[in-house]
Here is the input.
Amino acid sequence: MKKMDELFYRIIHTHPDYKSLIPRLVVGLVFLSEGIQKFIMPEVVGAGRFERIGFDNFEFLAYFVGTFEVLCGVLLLAGFLVRLSSIPLLIIMFTAIISTKIPTLMEEGFWVMAHAARTDFAMTMLLIYLIIYGAGKRSLDALMIKDKQN
Here is the structure.
């Protein structure tokens, strides 16, 4: 059981400062919004978009991804299990880049792709930041560490 406690502590351990607050809020709000939009506007950003991209089983995938975006976005906003909740979002970003931006690069060139990928790039970098530095001081992760240390 001690090994599990150590692993959990390593996952939620965070720097005791506020540097992660803004990145966490930005990423959390963007993914929460995008996930909700997959449910309320499926033809534009949900199943319809997944079908246009060429995914098999596009309806299931759109709702699956939307669910992860909402849940992980909420976890990021609360600062709970920030490192763990960033991983599925990073996978979503890599999938989006591979499935939409690489074809754009091949068909329309670098500058068109660079313009289309600006948000994907920013979100990917912020997720990597959160995986490295954790939730920061104003978070449930920090609160749990504080309780564990007392």
